[in-house]
Amino acid sequence: MRSVCLESSADMAHRNIPIFIPHLGCPNQCVFCNQRSISGCSSFQRENVIQQIEQALSTIPDGTDTEIAFFGGSFTGIDRELMIWLLETAGRYVSNGRVSSIRLSTRPDYITPEILKILSGYPVKTVELGLQSMDDEVLKRTARGHTAKAARDACRAVVDAGFSLVGQMMIGLPASTPQKELATAKEICSLGASAARIYPTVVFYDTPLQKQMAEGAYQPLTVEQAMDRTADVLEVFLQNNVPCIRIGLCSSEDLVSPERVAAGPNHPALGELVWNRYYYKKMIKTLTDRGLLGREVILFVPERDLSKTIGQRRCNIEKLLRETDTRVYQIVGDKAQTGVLPIERQSAEKLLKRSKRTCI
Ligand code: SF4
After folding, report:
1. Mean pLDDT, 10 residues at a time, over the chain (360 residues)?
2. Is 33 near ligand 1, meaning CB less than 6 Å away?
3. By the 8 A CB rule, do 158 and 195 touch?
4. Which residue owns the Cα nearest ligand 1 atom 8?
5. Is the CB of residue 26 below 6 angstroms from any atom belonging to ligand 1?
6. What are the chain's domains?
7. What is this structure's pTM?
8. How far is CA 94 from CA 12, 99, 123, 135, 302, in A?
9. Beta bridge partners of 126
């Protein structure tokens, strides 16, 4: 049973208490969505909400920055009385100091001046918008039911109303391309997002996308393709100082079990693989820029980036050798480094003799 969600490894002191509201308030059926699978529960029961919050709070250490987070559907589109009840219930936890704020996720076309006014009356800090793509053709093919303009307008309205905006986007949707995904990420940044989530598309059972796949009209990405495309999008966010608080579905919540997912890049450590690929690409670029591709090198790496640079089971080092004939003789963890610095082996060894840096 899910109770607490760690948002980001870079932000260890933050916890979300997720309350999942599957499909309530959702006006349509996006082709990729089986919200019952995505939210991990088949029904919502109001009477369980307080118990869920209390149970989650009992596991969270004092002093943790905690948010009650309404995820899973289209929060601002649910029955108005229920929405207000949930906001008031969560608001009481903020008033008594047990949580710091409220977070919610919704559809762009369910952001209106009236909704924003209601949300402003409660301690809502963050509004997450399921944008998925900023390309009209992709939105149409995925039956999102709104345009890219509606998504842009909603982002601006959320930011203008003083909320923190989190942009959620997807990789590998029907009609999408790497270029459209990079453009979407750039737009999310320029529209003022304070964070992003990236979800490579997986094909859930009982969805229109599964039907499209069976008919040959949709080809899901492989894990390898998803790693590549997501790593490039991740780079856009990082270049724009927009932290990425989630890559891929949460593997700890049995969403990615074979009973739920029919196809697609469904890997339990997809986020980690994407980070590995991001670092691999950075390594290739630096080696190329310094004319060291295909040589024997020693890598000087910021200590905090060591494991991501090396990759799971040394996958990046082996890929580098296999694909570029670049042999990494040593990797040196160096607190002073801000990025990967490759130096040709002989020159690097002279440097190392004069220092006491740790080697791997
Ligand atoms: S709007 Fe959200 S909840 Fe509704 S079908 Fe689309 S992805 Fe699922």
Report:
1. 43 81 77 68 80 94 91 88 96 96 96 98 97 98 96 98 98 98 98 98 94 97 97 98 93 69 92 95 94 93 90 94 94 84 83 61
2. yes
3. no
4. 33
5. yes
6. 5-268 (3.20.20.70), 291-359 (3.30.300)
7. 0.90
8. 20, 5, 7, 38, 39
9. 103, 164
